[in-house]
């Protein structure tokens, strides 16, 4: 099934509105643990629209591996695909959604204008 750019734009706006409603904003990390899909793209574009940092993961990671990654990136929100609910449970201290929850209210959110940048999440050293 194909999408037009307008359809992707509308879905990304709806998902961005949901992210804003959840308190996600500039510099916040959104961890996305789902197989590639149309919703995956919507969440990625939505995160960028609100000024967030998307951390896509390999959908084949175990719950334990996802926990280790989350300890490094400290996501404000975890979004999981269908069948990965146990992964969300493993990160019980991190708010989480199923991919379908990111569809939002349909209201067009304000777009990030790039005026403020929180780069602290990018400046942490990688563990060895």
UniProtKB/TrEMBL annotation:
InterPro entries, per the entry: AMP-dep_synth/lig_dom (IPR000873), ANL_N_sf (IPR042099), ATP-dep_AMP-bd_enzyme (IPR050237)
Start and end residues of each stretch annotated as Disordered: 98-128
AMP-dependent synthetase/ligase domain sequence ranges: 3-88
SUPFAM superfamilies reported in the protein's UniProt record: Acetyl-CoA synthetase-like
Top-level taxon of origin: Bacteria
Name the record gives this protein: AMP-binding enzyme
């Amino acid at each position: 099934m194909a999408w037009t750019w307008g359809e992707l734009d509308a879905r990304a706006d709806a998902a961005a509105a949901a992210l804003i409603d959840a308190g996600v904003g500039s510099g916040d990390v959104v961890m996305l643990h789902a197989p590639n899909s149309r919703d995956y793209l919507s969440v990625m574009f939505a995160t960028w629209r609100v000024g967030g940092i998307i951390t896509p993961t390999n959908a084949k990671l175990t719950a334990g591996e996802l926990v280790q990654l989350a300890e490094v990136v400290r996501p404000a929100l975890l979004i999981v695909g269908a069948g990965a609910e146990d992964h969300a449970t493993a990160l019980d201290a991190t708010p989480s959604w199923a991919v379908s929850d990111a569809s939002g209210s349909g209201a067009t959110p304000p777009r990030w204008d790039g005026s403020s940048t929180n780069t602290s999440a990018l400046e942490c050293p990688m563990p060895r």
